Amino acid sequence: MTTRTFRITVRGVFDGLGADQRADLLTRASEHDVLQASFTPEGHLSYDLAARPAFTFRFLDSGEEEEDILEAVERAETAAIAWLTERGYGFKRLRSQGEDLSQAPLGKRQRRAIAQNIQNTP
């Protein structure tokens, strides 16, 4: 059995932030820059509070079966809620989406590499 890699995205909107909370998020914005976003097992938060109050957590998880993605999405959403709640950040409109990378379509470079390997095989 092979291990499947899942990318989970949890999106939402900050809600009812106080002045101190907003200032804290703005101070730490460079740590959560959208351009630095990556999928990690512990989850990576990104936002641009100056542009809009939305946020995105990106999680990396794995499983053996195709159905394991449902549990991975649940774990990611629970972790995102815990992070926000521990810091007292209100949120709303939370939605989660998971992607099984074994089911993802190949990109142009991947298709080209496969084609070259087939041509070079005796």
Question: Strand-and-helix sequence, N→C?
Answer: EHEEHEH
Largest sheet: 4 strands, antiparallel
Number of helices: 3
Give the mean pLDDT: 88
Rg from Cα: 18 Å
Spatial gap, N to C terminus? 29 Å
Silhouette: elongated
Number of E-state strands: 4
> Structural class, from helix and strand content?
alpha+beta
Strands of the largest sheet, in order across it? 2-3-1-4
Work out the helicity level.
25-40%
pLDDT < 50 stretches: none
Give the percentage of residues in beta strands: 25-35%
List the helices and strands and how they pair.
Blueprint: E1 4-14, H1 19-27, E2 44-47, E3 54-63, H2 68-86, E4 91-100, H3 108-120
Antiparallel strand pairs: 1-3, 1-4, 2-3
How does this structure look, described?
With 122 residues, this protein is α+β, with helices and mostly antiparallel strands. Helix content is 34%, strand content 29%. The chain has helices spanning 19-27, 68-86, 108-120, and strands spanning 4-14, 44-47, 54-63, 91-100. The longest helix has 19 residues, at 68-86. The mean pLDDT is 88.
